[in-house]
Amino acid sequence: MNFKIAEWRWPDSLETVTLTELSHCCGMTEAELDELVEYCALLPVSQTAPVRAFSAQWVVPLRNAAKLRLDFDLDMFTVAILLDNLTRIEVLERQVHSLQALLPPDLRADMGC
């Protein structure tokens, strides 16, 4: 049996992806992503660049939003609201983990960390 090895990396906050690449990564069309930009739910790195580019950090939240969109048959306006909430939750979770890391080890054990 031959196994194909795939290279997998977590997207870096400094990396950028084009609209086409983002479309392929998250499973939404370019027109749908443009609509999210119109709703200000998806922000390009630069408004003046000739080719629209986005932070690679959008890949994971957009994949999650695309999956929920299919599961619940959501329109793009609802996806825009959902995407905003997903990114807020992610930020809050990172803050909670950072604060929990500052706790003494005996207190962390009580919190289930």
Your description of this structure?
With 113 residues, the protein is mainly alpha-helical. The protein is built from five helices and two strands, in the order βααβααα. It has a two-stranded antiparallel sheet.
Largest sheet, strands/sense/barrel? 2 strands, antiparallel
Q: What characteristic shape results from the CA principal axes?
A: elongated
Low-confidence stretches: none
What class do helices, strands and sheet pairing give? mainly alpha
* Number of helical stretches of at least 4 residues: 5
Number of structurally distinct domains:
1
- Compute the CA-based radius of gyration: 18 Å
Strand order of the largest sheet: 1-2
Oligomer designation: single chain
Brief descriptors of the model:
single chain, 113 residues, mainly alpha, Multidrug-efflux Transporter Regulator, Chain: A, Domain 2, 5 helices, 2 strands, 57% helix
Give a topology summary:
Blueprint: E1 16-18, H1 19-26, H2 30-38, E2 53-55, H3 59-72, H4 76-102, H5 105-110
Antiparallel strand pairs: 1-2
Helix pairs in contact: 3-4
Compact summary:
It contains 5 helices and 2 strands, in the order E-H-H-E-H-H-H. With 113 residues, it is mainly alpha-helical.
